[in-house]
Amino acid sequence: MTTELHQQRATILALTRQFQQSEAARVPPFRPGQDPVRYAGRVHDADEVATLVDASLDFWLTAGRFNEAFESGLADFLGVENALTVNSGSSANLVAFATLTSPKLGERRIRPGDEVITVAAGFPTTVNPIIQHGAIPVFVDVELGSYTPDIERIEAAIGPRTRAVMIAHTMGVPFALTELRALCDRHGLWLVEDNCDALGSRYDDRLTGSVGHLATASFYPAHHITMGEGGAVMTDDDELARIARSFRDWGRDCYCSGGENNSCGKRFSQQFGDLPAGYDHKFVYSHIGYNLKITDLQAAVGCAQLRKLPSFIAARKRHHARFSEGLARHADQLVLHSAPANADPSWFGYVITVRPEANVSRGELVKALEDARIETRNLFCGNLLRHPAYRDVPHRVVGDLTNSDTITTQTFFIGVYPGLTEPMIDHVLATVDQALD
Amino acid sequence: MAQPQRFEARVAQIARHHPQLASLRLEALRPLPRMRPGQFVQLALEPADPSGFWPESRAFSIANAVSDRHTLWLTIGAQGRFTRRLLEQVSAGDHLWAKGPYGDFVIGPTADCHTAVLVAGGTGITPFCAFLDAALQAGRLPLPAVHLHYGARHPGLLVHRPLVEQAQARLRGLRVTYYAETLHDPPAQRSGHAAERMTGRQPSAEPDRAADPYPGAGDTGFAASQAAHDARDAPPDPVTVGPADGLAVGRPDGLVHGRINLADILTRTPDPRGSLFYLSGPGAMLSAFRSGLQRLGHIPAARIRLDAWE
């Protein structure tokens, strides 16, 4: 790039920053009851906008330099070798599970009819890939408070056809990660961590998303960092990474990035299946794959967000702690959000289960909050098996799903995202006090 | 295979072994992805514009274990326009762009094979240097038995021999057979700096890791011999060569006199059909050895691994 072009680009980016800062300065102070308290949202400044414009000036569009920088940065943050971006957290779960069905894994692959242990109370796309690949989900219940399953429930669900455990660190609370990985290793099971809600959480001082054979992340705006739509698959296993990349990239065997040719050095000199010898490796398919890649524009935003991640995590912890402190006096009416002692969550939200003996129902409390312009959300789908789509899905339940049903009827959450301010948190707590007292 | 990355690296050192051969020590400007012995990188001459297309590049085997995630050793032999430019134009202190790692020429056991036979002709020793470097650092081989067959045109060109001998002394299960087509070095080689350079080298820490006497198309090594065969219209088929002329197992210098050849390798392999064969060297050698292993040794194709590029 010439010096003149560099200078022009710098001028454009400086003006972009100036524009964003001017726009941000126009946001008025929070007015309780009049302005919304979101449960989540984009938190950004001039860095994101300038980086996005920088990527747009490249006009590379498909995954390029920003994607490579983001994948590398995310892998470094988590301390894993491989991070592959995909276009959503749900796609990440799909790719992660598909990876475990690869014929390249031989006898270790998951086949139709094999069982995968998961939970009923969560987000559907943690479970959907299991069903979509003809495997059988085996549901266990979760605990109220942490909304993750006890290790004993999982162990009790292991049967002769169990091949994997695929569970989310729901709302940022790590499940018993160390113990579950050990359990999986003892039984020869794959462990997939759905880490979409929990980027930055730790268990036994290890980051979630770095312990399972595969893990996933989401960068939807409600999540810890965002690129609009986006997600990632993480693994420390190079073989799994290559398979995951193949599933993401149409199922092809070639591993050239966009715009590259012959990185393998043998594009026209290999033999695959029944193809003619030397068939162009760029068009050899070793999996029934998808195209789930992101654009470099998304990755550019992700790069700027990744730099803010430590401060975002700290803000989430701070806000969650304020809610815990403020709601403690209602513990007789509410099940407060909690985590195991050896967990250090990067909270996704503050989950509240209204006890049957409370002065109000969940519906009444939610209405009070929503009337005060405070956003609430259900804990995703509650008991998944109560939804129409799953009525006829082959599955197994081990134990009962009492708590999952309670979540369906009694539970909701409010936000702890970095965009909250102290006056917003004060307003939320005051509204809860008013509803319960 | 770890996620390949593009990276910029400083040329920290150039060891010129021969007008047509040099080893480059590259220091990456950021931590490198995990690289496994046997993998390679694509090295470019032109600066890579991160926002644009990848420039013209060539594949080079990584010759060390890259355990520090920063230091790469590569050997550059003059084989064509690109590599000649590299040798002529690159100086210590320059910055180059590379991307990788790529490739799956990774040595390890399978469910039913626990013996590996490594065959290195010419520059083909390079990925095996990375393998031995990693094994030395680990203190053991990744499979119980490994037999390395390492051939050069004459003894002075077995420049990686000190590393191989060090590995042989320290690694249980490693056997080595050296081959040299002639037993005497030409005067230039005897008095040259190559032998001196290679003395006392250590894994990873030593700067001569990638030293290799085979430019591949120059006047030394297997490829040159192959070219001579081609020029005479003789079938370039080392497989047809029987036990090497003047076979000299037990010579004081430990060499087998003759070209590295398949019949000798099969003779020295106790259970060929239960072994994995890793072949690395000039293209003609790879083709001939692969077909020979299948034809003469009845080795299944799946047990023959080639380090081959176009």
What assembly state would you assign to the polypeptide chains in this entry?
Answer: heterodimer
The major beta sheet of chain A can be summarized as:
8 strands, mixed
What sort of overall outline of chain B do the alpha carbons produce when their principal axes are compared? globular
Which ranges of chain A are low-confidence, i.e. pLDDT below 50, for 5 or more consecutive residues? none
Query: What's the count of strands of chain B?
Result: 12
Helix percentage of chain A: 25-40%
Give the count of helical stretches of chain B. Answer: 8
Q: Can you count the beta strands of chain A?
A: 15
Gyration radius of chain B, in Å: 19 Å
Q: What can you tell me about this protein's structure?
A:
The complex is a heterodimer of chains A (437) and B (310). With 437 residues, chain A is α/β, with parallel strands linked by helices. In chain A, 38% of the residues lie in helices and 14% in strands. In chain A, strands 1-9-8-5-4-2-3-14 form an eight-stranded mixed sheet, sandwiched between helices. In chain A, helix 7 links the parallel strand 4 and strand 5 (190-194). In chain A, helix 1 (3-24) packs antiparallel against helix 2 and helix 4 (89-99) crosses helix 8 (238-248). Chain A is flat and about 75 Å long. Chain A starts with a helix and ends with a helix. Chain B has 310 residues and is of the alpha/beta class. In chain B, 24% of the residues lie in helices and 26% in strands. Chain B has helices at residues 81-89, 125-138, 161-170, 187-191, 193-198, 221-231, 262-267, 283-295; strands at 5-18, 21-28, 40-44, 57-61, 71-77, 95-102, 115-121, 145-152, 174-180, 255-257, 275-280, 304-307. In chain B, helix 2 runs parallel beside helix 3 (161-170). Mean pLDDT of chain B is 78; it is low at 191-250. Classes of the chains: A alpha/beta (437), B alpha/beta (310). The interface between A and B is medium-sized, with 31 and 25 residues.
